[in-house]
Write a structure and sequence with these properties.
This protein is an alpha+beta fold. The protein has helices spanning 2-12, 57-79, 100-104, 108-112, 176-203, 210-225, 229-240, 251-254, 262-269, 271-279, 288-294, 315-330, 340-351, 358-369; strands at 15-22, 30-40, 46-55, 83-88, 93-96, 138-145, 151-162, 166-174. The chain has three domains: 2-63, Beta-Lactamase (2-Layer Sandwich), CATH 3.30.450; 80-174, PAS domain (Beta-Lactamase), CATH 3.30.450.20; 188-369, Hypothetical protein af1432 (Orthogonal Bundle). Strand 6 and strand 7 (151-162) form a beta hairpin. Helix 6 (210-225) runs antiparallel to helix 7, helix 6 (210-225) crosses helix 14 (358-369) and helix 10 packs antiparallel against helix 11 (288-294). The longest helix has 28 residues, at 176-203. The chain is rod-shaped and about 135 Å long.
């Protein structure tokens, strides 16, 4: 009881503190503390108690809000499916969400003990510290092997933050299922493309292997030109089906042993547009239909089917044209034997600039002369263009 406390305080001295809550209907609750201290006379005899009432309503409310915010923060952090890190300027983890264990197989305590987050990725430099700090957000693709040996594909988002000193906010999202689904979809597309290629080769046996060889040539040129992996994959797909429109060309024209008449050649020329019409409604992740339509266009606008000029053509289409000409000249046709690699290089240089993209031609010739590009059936020694 308060009276007992007061009597004890008068006997023993010192001070006491008691919290209080005052509730009045319709009013804001008042919360605080009552402090009491014994007062003594000059001779040390107790003469009474001094009471002080302190209003701590705002402080208690703030503390309650802080507790609720901490509880909410805990719930939110536990619910995040990504692994989120805060790193210092040396990539040392300062904070990590609990889900790091499900992605990396390493618990939060172990992660916070690491010298660098790069250890989680199994490398000395995971590329985070080399990113420019003036970028809003940078996305990296990384693969990791967990402790159980499972490979996970991650999309890593990195954002510089300034909270008094250099910090990085890193989010790792597990996209393994998405990557695997994309891989299956690409495999299915590849099968579709190969089926279309086989259909063309059944109609025109003289071009058996032609589209695959053109694909190899085009990818080699594109890689030297600096196309990324996705663009190279699309270029290969387009090369494999670039003659799919020949399905609509009569077989007797495709296999005619002599020179084609003008009307017959006009029919053959329709294969570029027909190929576009066959492919345009298929949801490929690359503009295959457009590449197929453009592979017989010319830099000066003299090609077909639309008479486009070089600046209107996809870079992949210009590369495909060079690869197609090179392979066609060196291969056997019903009306002639293959003309050899030397003649093919002469044709490329004759068409360079006005028919064919000059950069693609130069790269192609450079690869051949360096022995980095070949097709089965090529024979003879190739002299550098311009030699002699």
């Amino acid at each position: 009881m308060p009276e007992d406390v007061d009597r004890r305080l008068l006997v023993d001295g010192g001070f006491t503190a008691h919290p209080f809550d005052l509730w009045d209907a319709g009013e804001v609750p008042l919360r605080g503390e009552v402090l009491k201290i014994r007062l003594d006379d000059p001779d040390g005899r107790p003469v009474g108690l001094l009471g002080v009432v302190i209003d701590r309503t705002r402080q208690f409310d703030t503390e309650q809000q802080l507790l609720e915010a901490q509880a909410l923060h805990h719930v939110v952090v536990e619910a995040i499916s990504d692994a989120v890190f805060v790193l210092d300027g040396d990539s040392r983890p300062l904070f990590v969400t609990p889900n790091v264990a499900s992605i990396f197989g390493t618990g939060p305590e172990e992660v916070l003990a690491l010298e660098s987050i790069c250890a989680l990725f199994g490398c000395e430099d995971c590329g985070i510290l080399s990113l420019p700090r003036d970028c809003e957000t940078c996305n990296l693709e990384r693969s990791v092997i967990g402790r159980n040996g499972t490979r996970r594909e991650l999309l890593v988002s990195v954002k510089p933050i300034d909270i008094g000193m250099s910090r990085w906010l890193v989010t790792c999202r597990d996209v393994t299922e998405r990557v695997e689904a994309l891989s299956r979809a690409k495999a299915s597309m590849a099968q579709t493309v190969q089926a279309l290629c086989a259909a063309v080769e059944q109609r025109d046996p003289y071009v058996v292997g032609h589209q695959d060889r053109v694909a190899d040539l085009a990818v080699a040129i594109g890689r030297r030109k600096g196309l990324d992996d996705s663009s190279l994959e699309g270029l290969r797909m387009a090369a494999i089906v670039h003659d799919v429109g020949k399905i609509s060309v009569p077989g007797e024209i495709l296999s005619k042993p002599g020179k084609l008449s003008v009307p017959e050649f006009e029919i053959v020329k329709t294969h570029a547009e027909n190929g576009y019409q066959i492919l345009k409604d298929i949801a490929f992740p690359w503009p295959l239909a457009r590449m197929v339509r453009e592979h017989h266009e010319a830099m000066d606008g003299s090609g077909y089917p639309l008479g486009l000029t070089g600046d209107q053509l996809l870079p992949e289409s210009r590369i495909l044209s060079v690869a197609d000409v090179l392979e066609a000249v060196t291969s056997h046709r019903p009306y002639r034997a293959g003309m050899g690699l030397g003649r093919a290089l002469e044709v490329l240089n004759e068409m360079r600039g006005h028919k064919l993209d000059p950069e693609a031609v130069d790269i192609c010739v450079e690869l051949i002369e360096a022995g980095e590009l070949s097709v089965p059936g090529w024979t003879g020694t190739v002299e550098p263009v311009g030699a002699g």
